[in-house]
Amino acid sequence: TVLLDLPLSLALLRGVLVEVNGESHAIPTGAIRRILHASLGPGADGAVIEVEGESIPAAPLGTLLGQSADSPFGSDQTVMVLEARDGRMGIVVDAVLEEQELVFQELRGPLGDHVAIGGAGLPGNGDIVPIVDVQALHERSVAPAGGGSVTAVTRATGRVRPARVLVVEDSLVA
After folding, report:
1. Which residues, in sequence order, are bridge partners of residue 47?
2. pTM score, two decimals?
């Protein structure tokens, strides 16, 4: 007999794994409205994607997470249309990998300071992937500080932090 004792702070989350700049991230399935291949065009406040006659603001996920400053314009890119409380947005990803049920843990303390990462997920292969906070991402992508184009997500100090460290305590002993 095997007894598995999980902390109450663990939960399951259904998410789609995507690849951005060689790294995997999870997007909650409930926030995804559409995944398509499309070209981004210029809009009044940055890049937009046209979906069924609606102009939706869009940006590369890597740019929003502060990983890169790639140009959003190009042909036949993989775009995910996400729905937050305040509206829709599009994010450009390198690849959509698969949908999985993840063991989810909210990040606290210094690890929880990243404004666009809501937690860490553990997919079936045992890797640890950051889970994107769609609402925080939407707030920063649609209404960037100072107007104009989308800027990289910054920490409370206002500095862009290019490096990420994820520390996970994985012992089974409480």
Report:
1. 42
2. 0.71
